[in-house]
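Operator note (shift B, R.M.): manual run for Amino acid ABC transporter permease requested after the automated queue skipped it. Running by hand, logging everything below so the morning shift can see what happened. Input copied straight from the record, untouched. If output looks odd, do not overwrite the archive copy; leave it for review.
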Amino acid sequence: MQTKVGALKPRLSLSDPRVRGWVFQIVTVVLVVWLGGYLFDNTQTNLQHRGITSGFDFLERSAGFGIAQHLIDYTESDSYARVFVIGLLNTLLVSAIGVVLATILGFIIGIARLSPNWMINKLATVYVEVFRNIPPLLQILFWYFAVFLTMPLPRNSHTIADTFYMSSRGLNMPAAIGTEAFWPFVISVVLAIAAVVLMVRWANKRFEDTGVPFHKFWAAMALLVVIPGICVWLTGSPVHWEMPQLKGFNFVGGWVLIPELLALTLALTVYTAAFIAEIVRSGIQSVSHGQTEAAHSLGLKSGPTLRKVIIPQALRVIIPPLTSQYLNLVKNSSLAAGIGYPEMVSLFAGTVLNQTGQAIEVIAITMSVYLAISLSISLLMNLYNTRIALIER
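Run finished. Output pasted below as returned.
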């Protein structure tokens, strides 16, 4: 009888953690779906009452305003869709330059923080403590208003080797204009890079088999110089240089880096490099000091020990937080709205939104773009982190 009574007990009970977990998950999903449906219906109702049409047809309309910097051809009669592409390219430009420069500067400062030289160590410490504790927007405003806008006018610009001209209008420099030999030169560079990769693989295999080292660096430099050099000798120069010339009150020709781009790039680089420096310092310190002693016992000096022993191991600690700093730099580029640099937020979520009134569509597009960029960076960094991770046996 006891067995029968026990068999009649219900199997589903909230006292069961698994059942309770499923119930909570189902209730949560139902609430989220209901809330999403309510917000969607409420938004549609308000848009209809105010006579605001929804949709993405506005992207085909003419923009009707100028843009200070555009990496592709643009006129005021172009569509809002082209404005979106220009804002995206400008965001990617400042993000890519900032990531590269911040990484280089951050690694230098981070290594300097561990220098036995008292002066270098303290200067690096002062750099980190100063720039990482000042909000990035204030740094952007400082570089823009206190540095670049105080530069002289183009007629009295600072000149470097009669080639580069720095003024309140920006940095004017020679522009490389492609010739008929440009694409053959690009192909030769690709072939040179492929030859370097094959050479490095061969040299590594040779070292594993025989223990005889090979001068990979100098061989790679030779390949990168000789193969494109032969192409230039056969086909001619791949580019010709257009020099900036002062005409009237401004320079004509060449390339110009506007003050907004310079201030934004410099501020984001300096700010992010301070955090990267601390990440690099902690990553290096995470490697056991026995590794350094073992390298020195094999005859390696401090420089090769740092490059070939310490940093490769420290990267496993450095990469995850470094990814976060790359994401922060990309998102901080939206602060460019404070100085009028035409990136995604100030150009598309600012000017275009005010002109069209399509707030939901514009904000949704902008958020989706930043989400896609961030996820792409995370994916690439995670793939690299997986590649260099230790494989347990």
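Quick read of the result: The longest strand covers residues 164-167. DSSP finds twelve helices and eight strands in the chain.
Leaving this for review. - R.M.
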